[in-house]
Design a protein that fits this description.
The chain is of the alpha/beta class. It has 2 domains: 6-136, Rossmann fold, CATH 3.40.50.620; 137-180, no CATH class. It is 34% helix and 26% strand. It is built from 5 helices and 7 strands. The chain has helices at residues 17-31, 55-65, 84-93, 114-122, 149-164; strands at 6-11, 35-42, 74-82, 98-103, 126-131, 140-145, 170-175. The strands form 2 sheets. The chain has a 5-stranded parallel β-sheet, sandwiched between helices. Strands 6-7 form a two-stranded parallel ribbon. Strand 6, helix 5 and strand 7 (170-175) form a beta-alpha-beta unit. 31% of the residues are buried.
Length: 180
Amino acid sequence: MSRFQKLGVYLNDEPGDKEALAFAGLLARLGKPESIDCMHVRGIEKPAATPCPQPETVHQRLAEVLPADLARNIRIHVSEATGLHEMLRTARDRDLDLIVVGRRLPHDQMGVGATFYRLARKTPCDVLVVPAGAHAHLSRLLVLVDGSPHSRMALDTALHLAKASGERPQVLVQSVYSVG
């Protein structure tokens, strides 16, 4: 899994942060990335009401899920900015290979959601959206495709992750292409 050398984890004090950290730990054990950037971004799906945590608190949360040999590669950036634009900017500026972000699942919505759909379409790297309550595994993945070359790369990445997990891979492909 040498294709993910720069891993980004976005935390936002929402349900799903714990699961995103667990998936980041799993990816770190499988791929041994050269760096893991952890960013705290407020106001992704709702207005920013809570203050940003201290970097030591975020580092402690990451150290709980990462192997000890990878803990020294963690760079933490606590962002005071809010929203999707901050996530896109940091992914571009830090030249990330993969973003892991958790999200809460409203009772009436089981899909990715509009904000995370825009993130996946606009970010310059692969995005793994982890729903709250998910257990860390990479054998069953859902990939949204629209027929573009980028969605082909997303499918290739999902297949690569599922095979690298060592379990029986299952990749579900959902078309989001629509004709006007």
